[in-house]
Amino acid sequence: APQCPGIETLCLDLADWGATEAALSAAGPFELLVNNAAVALLQPFLEVTREALQRSLDVNLGAVLHVSQIVARQMIAQGVPGAIVNVSSQASQRALRDHAIYCSTKSALDMLSKVMALELGPHKIRVNTVNPTVVMTDMGRINWSDPQKSAAMINRIPLGKFADVDDVVNSILFLLSDKSAMTTGSSLVVDGGFLVS
Asked: Which of 35, 64, 174, 193 has the largest count of CB atoms under 10 Å?
């Protein structure tokens, strides 16, 4: 990115473990990691395909596990404290129509994050999740552009709106920072109150 000359961009299919390992082993050293890659393949439960299930597991769960392994091993080898934030979803905790695979993989991601926090804590590596409502990214716009569908969801959010990208970014920055030095294994819900409604 031109505005951040120190940032090197790697374009990878994170479902390809070999390519991911090769690219990340050559990068680093790492102190912070945000796992944000995800797919939302929406299908009614009775029509869920094996292909959609496998792709979602590979990206939403498998890629997080694999990238985190590579980065955490580097952190441990360097002896540096670290922080990992996994981007989950309100959908990990609430059933949503046509989201059988998405809800399930995000729920699995929440538990993976807790186990990571348990095992990586002794190495001074913290692991947390952010669990946003619908965020107005390109993917969010694609899946929630229908006014009737979006109105039904917004009506269940006490603050009455979807999240902006900055709402999620600021929560991630908090969890990466020393301001959350005693927080690990937790979920920071960024949902405008959806889960309490």
From this structure: 64
167/115 Cα distance (integer angstroms): 26
pTM score, whole prediction? 0.94
Q: What is the distance, to the nearest Å, from the Cα of residue 87 to the centroid of all Cα atoms in its chain?
A: 2
**Active-site position among 30, 102, 162, 194:** 102
CB neighbour list of residue 29: distance below 8 Å, 6 or more residues apart? 74, 75, 78, 80
- The CATH architecture assigned to 17-196 reads 3-Layer(aba) Sandwich (3.40)
Domain ranges of the chain: 17-196
Any catalytic annotation for residue 102?
yes
Q: What is the pLDDT of residues 130-156, one digit of tens each?
A: 999 999 888 788 878 888 889 999 999
Cβ contacts of 117 within 8 Å, gap of 6 or more: 126, 127, 128, 184, 185
Cβ-based neighbours of 168, under 8 Å, separated by 6 or more: 87, 130, 132, 135, 190
Q: Which amino acid is at 37?
A: A
Is the dihedral angle over the CA atoms 20, 21, 24, 26 positive or is it negative? negative
Q: What does the pLDDT read at residue 2? A: 64
In which order are the strands placed within the sheet that holds 125-132? Answer: 32-35, 82-87, 125-132, 187-190
